[in-house]
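We modelled the chain as a single entity of 219 amino acids. Its sequence is:
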Amino acid sequence: MTNQSDGMTSANADWDARAASFDEEPDHGLRDPEVRRAWAERLRGWLPGRAGDVLDLGCGTGSLSLLASEQGHRVTGVDLSPAMVTLAREKLAGRDAVFLVGDAAAPPVGERRFDAVLVRHVLWALPDPGRALGHWYGLLRPGGRLVLVEGVWGSTAPVGIPADRLVGLLAPIAGRVRVERLSGDPLLWGKEVTDERYAVVAQVRASGQELGEVPAAGA
């Protein structure tokens, strides 16, 4: 798990050590009902409208996985931290969900394909984000969606990946994509934020069709 929402952690953090307190951040644990509803509403617009297979990479303790499961999706979560995976398994016990310890850049899912690949605050920390995007795109079924929640955090020494750079990385494989700005919605973060936060949704072309704009929420 590599989440930079507070602008102070690093890609090399000891996530096993952080696992027990990870959900204390409002946008990690989604414990506040309003924050939880805000993420659920966004997720409903990003993921396919009908039940499908969702791969949650860098899933952490499984908070977004749980929302996806509650919306009827079958979830596979992958995280590099065994402690995070243990907590995710506990959080989604009894649900149609599987959690694996592994590298988000090369998830251990074999030949499985998914209707959506969901990745939050992971891409910015990878050594070769373009290669990871190509691999993730290849894990999608025709018509599937790649959902990326990213941003740029910190003012003194900002880290992250700007939206325009991410769109550029997607251009060779995904054509046009939809960018949804998230900085202006404090309910997502449990506070007002001034840095760049956004979601990018790219849809795999259906057989024989060119990729166009991803449908708006509810379409």
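As a brief sanity check on the tokenised model: The beta strands are 53-57, 74-79, 97-101, 114-120, 140-153, 159-160, 178-181, 196-203. Residues 1-10, 207-219 have pLDDT under 50 and may be disordered.
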